[in-house]
Request: fold
Amino acid sequence: MIRMRAPAPLPSHLSAAPFTVHEARAASLSRARLRASDLATGGRLIYLPGGWDFEIRSLARALSAATPGGWISHLTAAVIHGLWLPAWFRDCRQLHLSKPKALPPVRRTGVVGHTVRVFPEEVTVQDGIYISTPARTWLDLARSLPMADLVAMGDQLVRRPRPGLEFRTEPWATREDLRTMLMRHPKLQGIVKARHAVELIRTGADSAPETFLRLALAAAGLPEPELQLRLMPGDLYSPAADLGYRKQRISIQYDGAHHRTREQQSRDNRRDDVFNAAGWRYFKFNADDLANDFRGAVRRVRFAFHAG
Reply:
């Protein structure tokens, strides 16, 4: 009986994530070792170690390394950046790779290729991955995203990060940055929708549902609400509602998943008490209202607005 010899262990840095043939050669792996049963192909020049569970960031890193001149883009870039996406896009396993028009088009199984015009400031490097910037990713998705979702992603780009709570201190972009980028790409598919969306983007929304609520109020004919409405304007320690109408003393809050913790609920209760004690009409909406496209929420706010 002939016993098959187990393949030699992979170097630790290649054993847990996809790697390229160039990384294999740098680690002195032979061609025979790369044909062993504990490795699978991830497409040309890419190997997948046995037992590896799909994880988009590590596969994107290998694809980026195996494609000089190309960069991760579109849905894949949005997932890696942590940008807002509708639920039906979030679990997509397709990799999107862009190349400039001067290079041959992408032809890889399981990879959606794009040949585009790009400017140097629209591509960045993140954890070793060549990837479109968040702003360029927003533009690339303008063709496929519904308008409200495109605005929600835009709100995410321009929002000010919370000090001490996020890995960055500045917004990913400003509305002027987005307008400048749109001017550079007048013929890109989706450009008309993007031009409309950029005029609807506002600073101050901390989540996509807040954006959807703001858009629903405007679509119902109500004035545009103030975002991050502080009870005492200019006082950074004053309680703030997500949005509202100061003249009518209406404050509105959207309670997402992070509001379920005991600590957050305690802070929310203190904020609610302050607004109520000041005589404001205070509305709190949640995922049930979102599932109804905020129709009931809008009716309640409209009634309060016109009741004076």
Q: What stands out?
A: The CA atoms of residues 93 and 103 lie 25 Å apart. The mean pLDDT is 91. The chain has 13 helices and twelve strands. The chain has three domains: 13-53, 57-198, 208-307.
